[in-house]
TrEMBL record:
Gene3D superfamilies: Tetratricopeptide repeat domain. It comes from the Bacteria. This is Rgg/GadR/MutR family transcriptional activator. Residues 12-65 form the HTH cro/C1-type domain. It comes from Trichococcus patagoniensis.
Length: 288
């Protein structure tokens, strides 16, 4: 399998010995023992069927095995992807750092997703420095032109959609997020799918709020609040209360300020100072 490094066999051998498994146990009449021995010596690579069998015998996922093979770290690509997905979009120095690392990666590899990250960081840097959303949209256009041609989106494409959602006009963003959420339903039992879905829905609520569509904002946030409570996520719940409170306040409803105050009390109770700063910044931007 060409997606594994030359150290696959040595890693397989080390894990097998640590688990005190025999070669016979690993092969389990599915792989000829001489073939298995050659795999451990990196003389041959496993077929896809054999690779899946070996993962099953090791009681490991592909992700865990790759992590171990990379000296208990994520691959360079995964580190880039994780850094981009976790960044604060107004952090220009970090955006520039990710962009430079992505460009260096592309000097050695051809990769659609990392190319997308370069386009998206360009757009986000422009947006943070100049606020020119029309110019920012020019940079994400190649990403969307690639993604909209696909018959379906997988998790990595869904993460890209989420990252660029707020760069679309509101009506287009609603349609795209609806399609994305429908795609995520295929991953209902996947551990990361729920996080992507919640993030998409939060981002859409923010877009609706920024576009003055307060009634729609309130309806969608009311759908998110039970999930935040069930998950015990005070951060998600505080964001819901803040955004719903602002939407209510914009319509002249006095209950809005009560919800805003409740959002900040939640964060105060958790003593989460970093998130409190983010929440205050959002409040100051949205209340105008």
């Amino acid at each position: 399998m060409d997606n594994h490094s030359a150290g696959f066999g040595k890693t397989l051998l080390r894990i097998r010995k640590n688990k005190q498994y025999s070669q016979q146990y690993m092969a389990e009449n599915k792989i000829h023992q001489s073939t298995y021995s050659k795999m451990e010596r990196d003389l041959i690579e496993p077929t896809l069927g054999n690779y899946r069998h070996l993962l099953s015998r090791l009681d490991m996922s592909d992700e865990e095995l790759q992590y171990i093979m990379n000296d208990y770290n994520h691959s360079e690509k995964e580190q880039l992807l994780t850094a981009f997905m976790n960044l604060s979009f107004n952090d220009v120095p970090l955006l520039q750092e990710i962009r430079e690392k992505a460009l260096k990666y592309l000097d050695m590899h051809t990769d659609y997703i990392i190319t997308d990250i370069v386009h998206l960081t360009d757009a986000l840097i422009i947006l943070a420095i100049t606020g020119d959303i029309a110019d920012a949209r020019k940079h994400v256009r190649p990403v969307w032109e690639r993604l909209e041609k696909l018959d379906g989106w997988y998790l990595v494409e869904l993460r890209m959609i989420n990252a660029m959602l707020f760069l679309f006009p509101i009506d287009e963003a609603i349609l795209i997020s609806g399609t994305a959420l429908a795609q995520i339903q295929k991953y209902v039992n996947h551990p990361f799918a729920g996080k992507i879905a919640i993030s998409l829905r939060h981002n859409l609520c923010l877009l609706l709020l920024k576009n003055g569509r307060y009634a729609e904002t309130i309806i969608r946030i009311d759908e998110l609040i039970p999930a935040a409570k069930e998950a015990g996520s005070y951060r998600h719940l505080s964001v819901c209360y803040l955004r719903k409170g602002i939407a209510l306040a914009k319509t002249g409803n006095p209950e809005g300020q009560l919800l805003i105050d409740q959002a900040f009390r939640l964060i105060e109770a958790a003593d989460d100072q970093d998130f409190k700063a983010n929440l205050e910044n959002e409040y100051n931007l949205l209340k105008e």
